[in-house]
Amino acid sequence: MQYDKNRFKTWALPHPLILFWVLFPGAILNELILGQRLPKVMLIDEKSDKPWMERTYIPCPHCETLHDARLWAKGNALGHWFGLMCPSCHEIIPCLWNIFSLAVLAITFPLWYFPARFFRRRWIKKEKERLAKDLERPLIQARSINWLLRGTLYLGGFMWMIMGVIPQVWEVLNGREWDWIMMLIALPIWLATGFVWGLAMRFFMNRKAKKADRHESD
What we know:
single chain, about 220 residues, alpha+beta, 2 domains
């Protein structure tokens, strides 16, 4: 795909943040359960003075259209188990897979293969309808997102439920006692983890290009 390499910086493997998504075990929940996918290639406009979130683009290798990455944010961030659909040509934009997600998919192959083939066409139809609605809505602004709140309550709380509460429920169902101390100890740990994640997201999503780079385009 042709694009201005003096203007756009490519994010793809082995970029550290992309590599983190591929190797982080927690991404299993995002990919397999929630359907959140990360494209194999993202382009960052280094000449723009907008926040990082508002100058990130996802290229479609089929029709070579650059799409604002915010199309797949907020209400349209989840449910993309088969990948990201290009709004222009309706082809699937290649996405990454977490290595642990691939391991789970390989082990459970007989369970999901035929249902996935059956639901793929329905998903494509729904995805086209969903994209049509999202294209009519204004794109989300970086300053409107409270990343600290999202990280602490949403991510931290969600991970506490998955890693702290559900295992305890499983223990009780198997005739063991509920370990309240362990569950309560896990709560502040996961909330702190979510807070740090939110802090990092706040920094990256609102980060602007270096002034020197912007002046080069003047």
